[in-house]
Amino acid sequence: MRIAIIGANAPDSMEWHFADAFQFAGYEAKIFDIYEKFPYTVKRLKHYFQVLDKIGRTYSDSYDRKRFLSVANSINEYNPDLVICFYRDIHPAFVDAVKSKNRRVIHVNPDALTSFGYQQVIAANYDALFTKDPYILEFMKNKAKLNAYIYNEAFNQRYNPKPACTKAEMEKEMNVDVMTYGTLYPYRARMVRALVDEGINVKLYGVVPHRFFDKALEKCYTGKYIVGEEKARTIYGAKIMFNNFHFAEIESVNCRFFEANGCGAFQLCDYKPILKDLLPVDPELVSFKTIDEGAEKVRYYLAHPEERYAIAEKVYQHFLEHYTYDHLIQYILKTVETL
After folding, report:
1. The pTM of the whole model exceeds 0.85
2. Full pLDDT tens readout for the chain, 339 residues
3. What fold, for 167-322?
């Protein structure tokens, strides 16, 4: 089977992990990135060209259509059996241009509902839509009458492998009480600030936004953007990985939830009812409903390392058996077979 993936061809992107899993399973898979050709290949100017392109696609339908029809031509030349789209702003004309009798075109939405833009995902004639949020699934199926399916996100055990040493040994090496990572948006920073104000030692990894960053957290910021084995070691080596979900994760969790558990971390996250379906332990043990409860549980587990180790190992084994990208692509392929 030949598979075309439409999205960002960048290490650690969901598209990249899908391609890795397909290739590992013996399929031919190629990522088509709208920014893989000149002038976007000029590294020092890429960002500026992307901004101009985004403005053009936002305000000019003809330009937007032209951009994606160009990608459609490349797809048709590649002649895949299956097209999997990840960009949320793909012009609907693209879908019509690449669909054929023997070729399915599906969309996997890796983000929360705030990323829907001009709702291109809903306007396009996809053969199937995959969403991680039961709230969005209910709307798509029962109101918009779309052919939608639920899916759970995943982790890549080849790219982010759990370290071979014990968690206690890695914690001693890292010497980090609490960590979190990703773009340090205000919603994340506010909650981390509450922990810091309680006297909890927090380390921050990722990207500082160019606006509205809380200066009180500068002392916590490491200046590191972690990927691959370094990400796995950092997450595993922290005593607690603190994961506060975006407020638009209505009934879903984020990719970080799967990555952390897949690295063998001990994770504390926002409570969501879906946790009971995802975890092999009582969700109340590893989640919080208020930030005060979160701080209380941080202090408790810092003082009870053996409980951390036991929970982290049980969760890791469960996720290794159920939530790798290898599992996810097989679920996608089996669903596509029924279309």
Report:
1. yes
2. 999 999 999 999 999 999 999 999 999 999 999 999 999 999 899 999 999 999 999 999 999 999 999 999 999 999 999 999 999 999 999 999 999 889 999 999 988 877 788 999 999 999 999 999 999 999 999 999 999 999 999 999 999 999 999 999 999 999 999 999 999 999 999 999 999 999 999 999 999 988 999 999 999 999 999 999 999 999 999 999 999 999 999 999 999 999 999 999 999 999 999 999 999 999 999 999 999 999 999 999 999 999 999 999 999 999 999 999 999 999 999 999 999
3. Rossmann fold (3.40.50)
> Do 2-154+325-337 and 167-322 show the same overall fold?
yes
Q: Structural domain boundaries of the chain?
A: 2-154+325-337, 167-322
CATH number of 2-154+325-337: 3.40.50.2000
Three-state secondary structure string covering the chain:
CEEEEECCCCCCCHHHHHHHHHHHCCCEEEEECCCCCCCCCCCCCHHHHHHHHHHHHHHCHHHHHHHHHHHHHHHHHHCCCEEEECCCCCCHHHHHHHCECCEEEEEEECCCHHHCCCCHHHHCCCCEEEECCHHHHHHHHHCCCCCEEECCCCECCCCCCCCCCCHHHHHHHHCCCEEEEEECCHHHHHHHHHHHHCCCCEEEEEECCCCCCCHHHHHHECCCCCCHHHHHHHHHHCCEEEECCCCCCCCCCCHHHHHHHHCCCCEEEECCCCHHHHCCCCHHHCEECCHHHHHHHHHHHHCCHHHHHHHHHHHHHHHHHHCEHHHHHHHHHHHHHCC
